[in-house]
Design brief:
By secondary structure, the protein is of the alpha+beta class. Helix content is 54%, strand content 13%. The protein is globular, with a radius of gyration of 13 Å.
Length: 92
């Protein structure tokens, strides 16, 4: 996955979370928004599957971003600047 494509996906999800006032979303909600924006098709029979498969490939190639975690089989995606904001708070 190229950095440009990843940047588009992350920017879309960050904007979505900002508009909704969320700090974290799951893979089904994320995939739904990416499909709505025309960036990643969703599987109607298995919502979130395309994004889950993409995230699994990133995890397996050790390229998973720090703001994405798999917790008990479910994927959690945080705002990309959430970690930076938290670090700034602790620095002061």
């Amino acid at each position: 996955m190229s950095n440009e494509i990843y940047s588009k996906l992350q920017h879309c999800l960050d904007s979505y979370m900002e508009l909704r006032g969320k700090k974290e979303i799951d893979e089904m909600e994320a995939n739904s928004e990416l499909a709505r924006q025309g960036l990643l098709e969703d599987d109607q029979a298995h919502p979130g599957r395309p994004l889950r498969e993409l995230l699994s490939r990133l995890r397996d190639s050790n390229m998973l971003p720090r703001n994405v975690k798999q917790v008990f089989g479910a994927w959690k995606i945080k705002h990309s600047r959430a970690l930076q904001m938290r670090q700034q708070i602790f620095m002061f």
